[in-house]
Structure formats: C-alpha cells, structure tokens
Amino acid sequence: MHLEKYDFVSNPAYTSFAFQSAGAHGTIEKVINYQPIPGFILSDGRQVINLGFGDWDEGHRKVDDSTVSNNGDRSKVLSTVASTIFAYMEKHGKLPVFAKGNCPSRTRLYQMSLNAHLAEEEEFFNVFGLLQDGWHPFRPGVNYQAFLVTKK
Question: Domain-by-domain residue ranges, the chain?
Fold first, then answer.
C-alpha cells in the first residue's frame, strides 16, 4: 500500500510491532500485537489471528486499547497498522487476521478506513465483514461487527 505511514519496529518473532504517533498531543507509543484466537480456525485449517492495537501505557506496562489519542494523524496511524499486516503475513504466511474495535464506534472507525482504501486493499487482500449470519465479502455501506482479511 502506498499511503503515508510511520516507521515501525518488530519483535524477532514478528508478532508485536511498535511505532510512535507524532501529532497534536505529542509523541504517543502505539503497539500492535498478533495472537492466535483459540478455537477460531477456518474450514481450510488456517488458524485465525487477532490483531490487537492500542497505546502503550508505561505506568501499567501494557497496551491500552481504550485510549482515544486524537493526535491528528488517524489515517497515518491506521495505514501503519495495515502495513504491519503485510509484515506479519510475510513472516507467518497467509494466516487470516481478525480485527474488531473494543466498542462499536472504534469498529466503525476501522470500517471507515477500510471503505476509504478498499480498492487498494483488495489488490492484496480478501476483506470480509461479520454480520449476524456470518462472514460476507466486505461491501461499502454495510455496518459490520468485525473484519477478517486474508492475503490473496
């Protein structure tokens, strides 16, 4: 993808990524973690991986996925998160990645970003959205509960 993004670093296993958001509220450490979801395996046998994302809380020494940073760089942050999916899959193969916000408004934010860049995303990924009756190919204008991306 050719969107503006931050440089990021990874742990040796390429399961955790970090970068710094720079904006209106200063520099904020962001962390993306990829972890298998126990029992969530696709019919073809592939393990589904959860994408966890949030701000690093130094005081509690953990990732806080409920913080609203409002640092003025949302598109760049989300583009950086998306680029870590490429890096993760480069190292771990075509494992499907699951993403859902910690609340409906955060899930909607992710959906708006997917909508804005869908043509470019679909060059590389199959994108699905979760509805009450299961997974469906992602379509703009439909409100989904969660998202799943698989590499083409």
Answer: 9-151
